[in-house]
Design goal:
The chain is mainly alpha-helical. The protein has 12 helices and 6 strands. The chain has a 3-stranded antiparallel sheet with strand order 1-3-2, covered by helices on one side. α6 packs antiparallel against α7 and α6 packs parallel to α8. The longest helix is centred in the C-terminal third of the chain and has 36 residues.
Length: about 400
């Protein structure tokens, strides 16, 4: 049994080796430079002369504010779909649009295009622009951005960032990607080629998720456009030429967190009602007249307090402000030095004035009086000395 199992495994391995790479052989058209692999050929009705065997239909709802506009443009939409053999219906009661194939429908993919048409019409895309989706070279993508951000204020702010001032950012993205873009509510509707739609989705999602600002995407797309003009760089990697933007960590305000109180199984006490407060203060038992008098008295007290406060504020404007002592230690030491110099100068002036008075007194004194005074003063000095002895 073991040998049989081993033999079975080896046969499976041989089969895998035999069939591996069977369809990976080089084809003659792989290296043909004349073939454009991105080109979408226009549908020819002769490819499907028998038509479709089954009826396919799609329906979508539209908001109430689109009713009036859809009623006006529905004949134009009906004519555009009739050319491709697709029937359409506008139900105003249910608020829905329905498209379905008929016996005249030849293109099997046109029903998908018609489904995209009614989706774009429900997302506020103008009818002349939405009808262009029926062309083979035009595709559409509806990007849902409402669920990418939870905070509504943040979502609105980032959606405005995508639009830019006076829709300049959106217009720049449209020019560089070659797509029509409409931002409406929680969705972004885009129409264009597959390559352009891929770029638009990347720009929109990075903007709403705050990964990269749309302006940086615009710079990258501009550089890619310039690099595409150089045929020498057609088969090279462009990452070394493209700028790399690093996200800066901007300091944000810290959110104040409330301190958690200790858990208690008992609920907090019920606050007293208005009647309980009146019973405590005794106001409940007063008559209506006394209650009104008390209210009037409280009102007058508040009024007097308010007038006094206003008067105080008016008078405060006329009170001169106190002068601040702005002198520092060096200034104070300098002032002390000046004061000491002035005091020394005043002392010296007093001394000189005293000497000058003494000199004048010596000049006016007479000799006789001076001798007489000297004689009278001598015995007194002796007596004093004798007493001290």
């Amino acid at each position: 049994m073991e040998m049989e199992a081993g033999g079975g495994e080896s046969s499976n391995a041989n089969k895998q080796r035999k069939h591996k790479g069977k369809h990976d052989k080089p084809k003659p058209w792989d290296d043909d430079p004349n073939i454009d692999r991105w080109k979408v050929d226009k549908f020819d009705p002769s490819w499907n002369e028998g038509g479709l065997l089954e009826v396919s239909s799609f329906s979508t709802l539209f908001p109430q504010y689109r009713e009036k506009y859809l009623q006006e443009v529905w004949p134009m939409v009906k004519r555009a779909l009739k050319e491709f053999g697709v029937a359409c219906e506008l139900n105003m009661v249910e608020g829905s649009m329905t498209v379905s194939t008929t016996r005249q429908t030849k293109d099997p993919y046109i029903i998908v295009k018609a489904r995209d048409l009614i989706k774009l019409l429900s997302r506020s895309v103008p009818a002349p622009q939405a009808i262009k989706i029926l062309n083979d070279d035009m595709q559409c993508d509806i990007i849902k951005i409402g669920s990418l951000v939870r905070n509504k204020e943040r979502f609105v702010k980032r959606r405005e960032r995508l639009l830019g001032p006076n829709l300049t950012t959106l217009k720049a993205i449209e020019i560089l990607t070659g797509c029509y873009i409409l931002v409406q509510g929680n969705t972004v509707a885009a129409m264009g080629s597959f390559k352009g739609l891929k770029q638009v989705r990347k720009v929109v999602e990075d903007c709403i998720q705050n990964v990269l600002h749309p302006v940086y995407h615009i710079k990258i797309l501009l550089m890619k456009r310039e690099l595409a003009k150089n045929p020498a760089l057609a088969n090279e990697n462009w990452d070394r030429f493209l700028p790399k933007f690093k996200k800066k960590n901007v300091q944000q305000k810290k959110v104040k967190t409330k301190e958690k109180k200790p858990y208690t199984p008992f609920p907090p006490p019920q606050p007293p009602s208005k009647m309980d407060l009146e019973l405590e203060s005794g106001e409940f038992f007063l008559s209506e007249k006394k209650k009104s008098e008390r209210k009037w008295q409280e009102k007058m007290e508040k009024q007097t307090e308010k007038t006094a406060e206003n008067k105080r504020k008016r008078e405060a404007a006329f009170v001169p402000p106190k002068e601040k002592n702005t002198t520092n230690e060096a200034g104070s030491s300098g002032a002390n030095n000046e004061k000491s110099e002035v005091a020394a100068l005043a002392k010296s002036l007093k001394k000189k004035a005293k000497e000058f008075r003494n000199n004048l007194a010596d000049q006016n004194v007479r000799a006789e009086s001076y001798i007489a005074n000297a004689d009278q003063a001598r015995p007194n000095k002796k007596k004093k000395s004798s007493k001290s002895d």
